[in-house]
Each structure stands twice: as structure tokens, then as C-alpha cells.
Amino acid sequence: MGERREGLVRARKAANLTQEKLAALLPADEKSIRAWESGRSEPRPHRRDRLARLLRISPARLEELLREGTPADLRRSAGVLLPVVVDGRPVALPLDRATVAASVLARLVPAPGDAAQPAVPTTEWDAMSPLSRRSLLKNGLPVAALPALGIGGAEHVARALENPRRYMDKTVTHYFRRQLDEYKYEDGERGPAKTLPMTLGVLDIIDRIARDATAEDQRALLQIGSEGAEFAGWLYRDRRQMADSLYWHDRAMEWAQAAGDSTMQGYILLKKAQVAYDERDPRRMLILTRAVRNGPWSLPRRLQAEAAQQEARAEAMLGASADQVNRTLDVAWKLLDDAGPAESPLGAHFNATLLNMQTAICYTEAGEPRRSVELYEKTLKETHFSRRDYGFFLSLMANSLALSGEPDQAAKTGLASARRATETNSRRTKEELRRVVEVLKPWHNRPDVRELREALNS
After folding, report:
1. Based on the domain organization, do 169 and 232 belong to the same domain?
2. Which residues pair with 141 in a beta bridge?
3. Which residues of the chain have pLDDT under 50?
């Protein structure tokens, strides 16, 4: 839970609004307003512009007030959000760490992850004009001032914000792709808390530019936007904020449809099926995976293989026979074997190692945890996964060990998973580990089991 957002409370009172009145004007329920001010949650992106107008503050100032209640790990992002004034209003321009380090900004703004201290001595910081700390972090910079900062492609993106029809080109789309690729890498190593603010910043700018771009440029932007929105849905999923995850998956589908990207539409349905698994809803999972496999799109074979595996898992959860589950898994393996090396970037992540992990999950769901453990022991290697993903699969292996009646080894594996979940702030992994602790209740007095339980409660 975050800290109380006193600045947000003061802004509401300065606008002469009660929580009840603000809720009615937004509109939202009063409980949401209380949650935002207490730091328990924050408004979704589509509400923020109107909220800022009702509070009579700029969108950049609202973001600053929301950060007051954000846990420290979420403030330590993968880059910097630089306020830039476009049409009289500040817009947060996302800059990755490499861009910041190579520019004048390295001397002007706090280093990513250190929001409390300026990156230069206080006297020099306070003396800066017009790039004072207050101007930079609160009021925003005019686009005309950006060339002096040496921020490369970000300057072109800012100009496209001012005039999309004149400045929108491949430089802008390449910039967004590079940013999102970096955030995806950061996510695997450091977790969603580091990458979520920057990803949302990219999506906000894509949305703004796309509104006034030409039809051709709009399609290119929304295609990238749909991929970024699906990634945002994943980040919220890993943080166990499922309503926000579904919101961004729906936004991704909307943008994929607007861009005419049918492959992406099938991919998003596949990701929604995975959310259904997280929520242990096998019937919805089965409906979605069958829609993926039979929909009006041409999916790469790797994605078809992933969908077949998801279908096998749903069948196992619904009590299908072992023969039926194995037949569907055989389909998945055949599709993967027939896949080319690089059919599509969307399916590039799915390989034999990942299918082995998901096959092990199927075995556990089918009531064969010992068979699952054997597959994990044979194929689960730390060098094959990001730190976060390795920790997650360790949690699933711990569950299979517990179900196999191996409490000590389950607890040791769970502790290794818990360390990685803490390092990457993966609430999804921790939720799986709590399921492991439930299975281990008959052995709750064993030292390793007790240590795992205490690690999750600390």
C-alpha cells in the first residue's frame, strides 16, 4: 500500500470540491476517490485528463501528486518522464536511461531511481534558468528548448506531438518500438514496478499523436500501441491488478482492430486466456483458446502451438481424461515442430523450453504432479529465462513437489522462488507461493516450511 496523497487532498479542497462532489462530476464512485487519496490505488489513464481539469491543475502536476503515494519501488522506473509543453499543456515525454545518460539531462535531472536528490549540487540546481528544477519537473519545457538538450529522436517525437501531420514519420514509430523493447527487457530482469510508468507514458503519447495523424500514420501508431497496451496488461497482471490488466487488454484489442491487425487480435485473446488461468476460470479459458485457434486470422504456428497447450490445460482443469489432454498436447508439439525459425515477432518467444514448462503445468492440473516434477527437473534451467520468469516457474515446481508429498524440497524450491519474486516485485509469483503454503499445511511445523511461510509474510 502507498502513502496518503496529501497533495491530492489539498488540490481537491483548493478546487472547493468534496469527495462526494468530485465523484459525481468525474463520474466515479466515492470509494474510488478515497482510495486514490489514501494511496491504495490510482485513477486509470482514461480518467486523468478530466480529473486534472476538475482539480484545476495540469496533467503533469496530477502525475506528480499521484507519485506522492506511489511505493518507492514503483517510482524507481526504467527512465525519465520529461514534461514538455504542447498546445499550452504539459505532456510526459518518456526517455529511456540510455537517452538520458547521453544528453545534457544527465546533469539536470535526478538519476532514474533517485527522485529525492538532484544529479548536480543544490546551488547549481537552484541557479538554473530557464531549466530550473521546478520548471523542468513541474511546469514543462517548450518544444523549442529541446534541441539544446541533445535527446535525439525524443525531440522529433515532441514535434510530432505539436504537429502530427508534419512531423509524424518512421523516426517516431522506431522511437516507440525501441522504448517498448527496452522496457520489456527491463521487466524480465527488474519487474513491472520499474517499467510500468514508462510504458504508460509511451501509450499516452501514441494515443495523443494518433488522434490527429493521417490514416496511414494512424494505423502504424495504433499497431505499435496495441502491442504496448498488451504489454501494459501483462505488467498489471504480474502486479495482480486484474481490473487494470483487463482494461489494457481491451484497449489493445481496440487499437489492433483499428489498425486492421488481425494477428494481434488473436494474440490478445490468447493473453486473455492466460488471465483466465490466473483466475482459475477454465471454462472461460477454454472458450478463449478455441476462439484463438478457430478465429478469422492467420496466426504463426508458434502462437497456434501456445493456444493448443492452453486448451490442453483448460481440459485438464475441467477433468478431461489423460488421453484427451495428451492428444491436445501432441497437437501443440506438432505445431511447434512445424514452425519456422522466425515466422513473426509475436510468436518468437514460444519455444520448446517454454512448451515443456507449460506441459508440466498441464500434468499438475491433470493430477500427475510427480510427472510434472520430473519434467521441471529435466528442463527448468535459470539460463533459459529472465530472473522474474525463472522465479515464477520455480513457484510452480514447488507446488508440484508439495502435491507429490515432498514438503522439504517444495519449501526449499519455494524459498528460491520467493527471493526472485522479491527482487522483481512479482506479486503473481508470490500468489502462487501462497498456494504452495496452503498445500504444505499438513507439514507446517517443518523448519523449511515455516521459513517459507515467514518469508511470504515478511
Report:
1. yes
2. 84
3. 1, 70-76, 110-135, 137
